[in-house]
Amino acid sequence: MKELKFRVWDKVKQKMFKPQAITFDTQTLAPFAVSVPGRSWEPAGKFEILQWTGLTDSNGTDVYEADFIKLSSTMYKVIWNSAAAGFSLIELGDFSQRSISDVSTGDVVGNQYENTVLLR
């Protein structure tokens, strides 16, 4: 079975967490509640839930949705591509795309929530 990993961005506390658990609505399969260390269950709407791509960068760092990846001198963001039903890399400011498999030759340099300065 494929390993699934998530991290969550707390929209209120402006902090990234590794969730202890995530529950899903049995009818819609949408996230329902999230449990993070030191807190009880909270509505999933308080968080951005970010999935692991299943890949690591050139340093062995796990690559998650919304991460910024530096390949050569170009910066990319990891996105979920609904049309392709998979993750892609999109160049910041240019919107050209690359294969997600290219992350293995790049470096994670941050993410869109903790490193907003990289979006400029």
What can be said about the biggest beta sheet? Answer: 5 strands, antiparallel
How far apart are the first and last residues' alpha carbons, in Å? Answer: 39 Å
Q: What structural class do the secondary elements suggest?
A: mainly beta
If helices are DSSP runs of H or I spanning 4 or more residues, what is the number of helices?
0
CATH class: Mainly Beta
CATH topological fold name: SH3 type barrels
CATH superfamily: YopX-like domains
Strand content: over 45%
Number of strands: 12
Low-confidence stretches: none
How would you write the strand order of the largest sheet? 11-10-9-8-12
Mean pLDDT: 93
Number of discrete domains: 1
Oligomer: single chain
The string of secondary-structure elements, in order, is: EEEEEEEEEEEE
Shape: globular
Rg on CA atoms, Å = 15 Å
Question: Roughly what percent helix?
Answer: under 10%
The CATH architecture comes to Roll
